[in-house]
Amino acid sequence: MVCLHSANIAKAPYFDLGNIAGQLGYEGVDLTVYIGGHVDPRVTNVDLIRAFESIRGAGLEVPMITTAINTPLDPTIYPVLYLTGHSQIPLFRLGLWKYGTEPIELRLAAIRQDLARILATAQASGIAAMFQNRAGGYVGQATWDAQTAVGLFDPRWLGYCFDPAEAMIEGGAGGWHTALRLALPRLKSVSLQDFRWEKGPEGWAVRKCPLGEGMVEWPVFFDMLAAARFSGPMSVRMEYPVEDAFGAMTKDAEFVKGWIQRAWGRKAG
To answer: Which CATH number fits the domain that encloses residue 163?
Structure first.
């Protein structure tokens, strides 16, 4: 299922998400449920169910939500996960953990404790969690580092949301490939972006760009997913500036669908 990450159209109200995403060629919506997202987790009892209903009413699905949940002390965890799980939405993306300055092993041990308590609520709510890889000093940026925590838990309730662009930014040509191989047994969804390195006055910097116009090795990526018989949602993110945003999002959706047909078609043949 090719999904629009709802942050791409942050200015649209949640009751318009389904109609807009459908018109752009998407089959589902990855709904942002965090402060500043489409649903504020502090008022989930009102807005969350309405958001799900409006998207489904437009003929689309909500296979996953994106949250900022990264501590069991967050008072919104229970209402968000309970209402989402009981709305038959199977997946939620966890928030991010910074490494900070404390020793790495101590940081990972603390995150393992956080995950155990968060997953207890998730399991009781019937929804699985996904750890995301994000470059830039975040735990899980290389995937193998998160595996020291993720690997301790039941894969039914904790897996990965893998982003090949973030993996390539962090691990380069070989590192992203190894990271995906490690994630595949627990892979529940993918987040799709593209990027290129550009040198400016202040040195080299990452520049996000439309899918297919950057450095991500899409043929290899999609062939690996097809070989693993991946069937989870694909959330398309747009973190690059563009004049025609709707046109760019439509083009990204068509790009993903084209690769799905090629990669899975070759696998079937």
So the answer is: 3.20.20.150
Structural domain count, the chain: 1
The residues, ordered by sequence, that sit 6+ positions from 58 with a Cβ below 8 Å of its Cβ are: 17, 18, 19, 21, 22
Model pTM score: 0.95
What pLDDT band is residue 200 in, cutting at 50, 70 and 90? confident
At residue 95, φ and ψ (nearest 5 deg) are -75, -165
The residues, ordered by sequence, that sit 6+ positions from 232 with a Cβ below 8 Å of its Cβ are 1, 63, 91, 187, 188, 189, 190
Cα Dmax for the chain: 52
Q: Model confidence at 258, in pLDDT bands (50, 70, 90)?
A: very high
- Contact call for residues 236 and 259 (beta carbons, < 8 A): no
What does the radius of gyration of the chain's CA atoms come to, in whole angstroms? 18
Q: For residue 183, which of 198, 196, 171 has the smallest C-alpha distance?
A: 171
Nearest to 258 by CA among 218, 230, 228, 225: 218
- For residue 36, give Cα distances in angstroms to 11, 17, 69: 10, 16, 14
Q: What is the pLDDT of residues 37-91, one digit of tens each?
A: 999 999 877 899 999 999 999 999 999 999 999 999 999 999 999 999 999 999 9
Domain limits for position 30: 2-268
